[in-house]
Design brief:
The complex is a heterodimer of chains A (about 475) and B (about 300). Chain A has about 475 residues and is an alpha+beta fold. Chain A folds into 4 domains: about 10-115, no CATH class; about 130-180 and about 430-475, TATA-Binding Protein (2-Layer Sandwich), CATH 3.30.310.80; about 210-285 and about 400-420, no CATH class; about 285-395, no CATH class. Chain A has helices at about 25-35, 35-55, 65-70, 70-80, 90-120, 125-130, 145-160, 180-205, 410-430, 460-475, and strands at about 135-140, 160-170, 170-180, 210-215, 220, 225-240, 245-255, 260-265, 270-275, 275-300, 305-310, 315-320, 325-330, 335-340, 345, 355-360, 365-370, 370-375, 385-405, 435-440, 445-455. In chain A, the strands form 5 sheets. A 5-stranded antiparallel sheet of chain A has the order 1-21-20-3-2. In chain A, strands 4, 9, 10, 11 and 19 form a 5-stranded antiparallel sheet that branches. In chain A, a hairpin with a 4-residue loop joins strand 12 and strand 13. The two termini of chain A are about 55 Å apart. Residues about 1-15 of chain A have low confidence and may be disordered. Chain B is globular and about 60 Å long. Chain B starts with a helix and ends in an 8-residue tail after the last helix. Chain B is built from 10 helices and no strands. By secondary structure, chain B is mainly alpha-helical. Chain B has one domain (about 5-295). In chain B, helix 4 (about 95-115) crosses helix 7 (about 160-190) and helix 7 runs antiparallel to helix 8. The chains are: A alpha+beta (about 475), B mainly alpha (about 300). Chains A and B meet through helix 2, strand 7, strand 10, strand 19 and helix 9 of A and helix 8 and helix 9 of B.
């Protein structure tokens, strides 16, 4: 494998004898270089090799992660070369750009001739032209010109060729062609690279992608679309064996104060409104709300549990037998206290140190609002209370993770994708062939001068040509 | 135990038998056959072969076809089992099923090739790869072989087409890889002057080369289509058609590698030996993309 761009531009150095190389020649060389197959091969392989970097080195991680795994020195090089975000470095993007230039130049240079051979066919060629073709044969036949021409045309037509014939005095020229679509396909594939990358760029510049953590019952404003989104419901479906089958959110779009669309989305089934897509992306435990919390009530004297209650979120529950009223008003998943603002908050979204704020009203005389910590049950003692309260468990409220995205370039990308699939399919399975036959009078009747050319699949074509010559030999009067 | 696992097991043994028969067929050729002129018709070949080499070849083909039918039956059975246990019936929803499907596609490709070109010697290589694929599948731990319910992200109709198209392209590249190995064997034998016995039944180098190229030209558009279907699915499920996830990137790398090959074929000197070595290299990359990425690299495709 040769992965050097040794298709180096044939720059002035190669032809030092040309004094003052003119622009015309220079631009010709430039086109030659950028349209070359060698450049294409080099780019394909070089992009393939560099693309592996991002699959081996974790992309977009924090600095500590790299330093820990590869050392500080290596990390410095990573930064210099952009290895922590390879696919967005200037040099990787340039390679993709160069691939576009390569394929476009190839199109510019080679498509006109394909177009010409589609539109106008050279039937009248010289004998020398036929004899110069890669595949050529001379077949003497004991027959008349017209009869041979007729059989030949018939044979070509049955083989699916497009045939043109010209009857001149003294000779008949038959031209047959097939499979020009194969070449059109290749060029369609060449154009597609630019179309796909263009669509990608439009998406990057005019689109957006955001992630939203949403709670049931809440309404969120979507500024980019200037409408509101209400989360009606979120739930999880399970398989018989307990694994998650799907998770779903019922969403309502509220536009101009009016509910417009309601749809239940799940993974693989998004909601689309005004070009903005809402995907069910993930779910998790909320860090500031619970559905229900379980509290043990202990008698301080006996140290025995007298009651276990499940308290619903922000709903007062009275226990007449103990003469106590309880409610849960706050929850944090990872307890932290901001001493300047005198505020309790959740340090992270992990449930590392969960705590609930319990509002107690005992015998209408003792009132307290302690924080109960699941991991530290004996932290606070409520002085006048007969009881000790302990948080033993809770069921967190689930949040639904929504991916919100808009991509105005997407249809251009799909157009490019269609072009590339159709293009390479055509060019893989169809190859362009052109054949000429001149039938001239010979010593024992006529001589068929046959010649043909193709742009690829030489081996297949050779076989076909051999068959054709064998067939022509059987043309009898 | 699931019924399909029994059928997959049977398929494995039949492919092993077919492989043994094809190898036996190569050894059973009479050395004299090497004297057949180049460009001979394989039919004549068989006639002069006489005795049991021909019969061995026929049995090998029959066993292969029977194994393939069992493979089909196993996949269908698995499809029904999936229907009962999970929301899909695509019998290529985990690594095990994917391997079984790839070997199904390889064997189908081989049978079509044999029917069209009447060359049995290829069987020793291509059926060999189909057998290895099936064998590697059966080596997976039992819990990977069952029809577990799908994770929500996979539970979509895209799985029917994206996975099957991609896997079919892998099968085509596998065939090209097998033909590449065969080319190198034959080439070495020719260099050493060993044109008799084992190598007598091999088609000429040009034919092997051409068949390998054909296999790649089938795989190349299929892989492009498979990647694009994956992009469409990703856009539908994750909200972005391309995220440079390792599996995505590696399938693109494989595609680029074959893209370079397709372009190189246009230039002189890229047939024969170079192309054969390259086809083997490409197939190793396919194996890495299919297996290596799942086990060595992390990413969104971690489940498949």
């Amino acid at each position: 494998m040769n992965s050097h761009p040794d298709a180096s531009p044939k720059e002035p150095a190669i032809r030092p004898s040309t004094p003052g190389l003119g622009w015309d020649e220079f631009s010709k060389e430039l086109v030659e270089f950028f349209a070359s197959v060698k450049l294409a091969i080099f780019l394909f392989l070089f992009i393939a090799i560099t693309a592996t970097i991002g699959t081996v080195i974790q992309q977009g991680e924090r600095a500590e992660v790299y330093v820990q795994e590869y050392g500080e020195n290596a990390y410095r090089w990573f930064l210099r070369l952009g290895f922590t975000d390879v696919y967005h470095t200037w040099w990787f993007t340039s390679l993709l750009g160069l691939l576009c230039v390569n394929s476009l130049t190839c199109f510019y240079k080679r498509f006109p001739s394909v177009w010409r051979s589609m539109k106008q066919d050279k039937v009248g060629v010289t004998m020398a032209f036929i004899k110069n073709l890669k595949q050529q044969a001379e077949i003497p036949l004991d027959n008349t010109k017209e009869a041979v021409a007729q059989q030949l045309v018939h044979y070509f037509v049955t083989k699916g060729y497009r045939v043109l014939a010209k009857n001149d005095p003294g000779e008949v020229t038959v031209y047959a062609t097939k499979g020009v679509l194969g070449r059109v396909g290749a060029h369609m594939a060449h154009l597609s690279a630019t179309v796909i990358i263009l669509g990608g760029l439009i998406g990057t510049y005019y689109g957006f992608q955001e992630f939203g953590v949403c709670l049931e019952g809440q309404t969120y404003h979507i500024p980019r679309g200037n409408f509101d989104l209400k989360i009606d419901k979120f739930w999880i479906d399970y398989h018989e064996n307990g694994s998650v089958k799907s998770y779903n959110s019922t969403l309502t779009v509220v536009d101009g104060g009016q509910p417009v669309v309601t749809k239940t989305i799940s993974v693989n089934d998004p909601l689309v409104y005004k070009g903005i897509w809402f995907y069910q992306s993930s779910y998790g435990d909320a860090w500031d709300q619970v559905e229900v919390a379980r509290v043990n009530i202990k008698d301080k004297e006996t140290d025995k549990i007298v009651k276990t209650v499940d308290l619903e979120w922000q709903k007062e529950q009275s226990l007449p037998d103990l003469n106590v009223k309880l409610s849960i008003t706050d929850f944090v998943a990872d307890f932290a206290f901001n001493s300047t603002e005198k505020k309790v908050y959740s340090k992270t979204i992990e449930h590392a140190n969960p705590a609930v704020k319990l509002v107690i009203n005992e015998r209408d005389s003792v009132q307290a609002t302690p924080w109960l910590f699941q991991q530290f049950p004996d932290l606070f003692n409520i002085k006048d209370s007969k009881y000790q309260f302990e948080l033993v468990g809770y069921k967190p409220r689930k949040f639904t993770g929504l991916q919100i995205a808009k991509n105005p370039g997407i249809n251009i990308v799909w157009t490019g994708c269609t072009m590339i699939v159709v293009g390479i399919t055509l060019s893989s399975f169809i190859f362009h062939r052109r054949l000429w036959a001149k039938i001239v009078p010979g010593p024992t009747g006529v001589i068929v001068h046959l010649g043909g050319t193709t742009h690829k699949s030489q081996i297949d074509f050779q076989k076909e040509f051999r068959k054709l010559t064998e067939k022509i030999q059987t043309f009898k009067a | 135990m699931m019924k399909s696992l029994f059928l997959f097991d049977m398929t494995f043994w039949l492919y092993l038998a077919a492989l043994a028969l094809y190898i036996g067929y190569l050894f059973a050729r009479r050395p004299a056959m090497a004297l057949a002129p180049a460009g001979h018709l394989p039919e004549n070949f068989d006639e002069r072969d006489g005795a049991w080499a021909t019969q061995l070849g026929q049995v090998a083909t029959l066993v292969t076809i029977f194994g393939w039918m069992l493979n089909t039956g196993a996949l269908l059975t698995r499809a029904f089992e999936r229907m009962e246990h999970s929301g899909t019936f695509a019998p290529w929803s985990n690594q095990f099923e994917a391997m079984a499907y790839v070997s199904w596609a390889i064997i189908l490709g081989y049978v079509l090739l044999e029917m069209r070109y009447k060359i049995k010697a290829v069987g020793a290589f291509v059926v060999g790869i189909g057998f290895i694929a099936m064998g590697a599948a059966s080596l997976l731990p039992y819990r990977y072989q069952t029809a577990e319910p799908l994770v929500p992200a996979l539970n979509s109709y895209w799985i029917y087409i994206h996975v099957s198209v991609t896997l079919t392209s892998y099968a085509a590249f596998a065939m090209a890889g097998g033909l590449g190995v065969m080319y190198l064997f034959k080439e070495r034998a020719e260099r050493l002057g060993k044109t008799t016995g084992f190598y007598a039944a091999f088609p000429d180098l040009e034919t092997i080369d051409e068949l390998g190229y054909k296999a790649i030209t089938v795989g190349f558009p299929l892989l492009a289509f498979g990647i694009i279907l994956g992009a469409m699915w990703a856009n539908y499920a994750w909200g972005g058609y391309w995220s440079w996830d390792p599996k995505e990137t590696w399938s693109l790398i494989v595609w680029l590698i074959y893209g370079a090959y397709i372009h190189a074929r246009m230039t002189r000197g890229w047939e024969g030996h170079k192309a054969a070595v390259y086809a083997v290299f490409g197939f190793l990359m396919v194996i890495f993309c299919f297996w290596g990425v799942n086990f060595l690299l992390s990413g969104l495709h971690a489940y498949a």
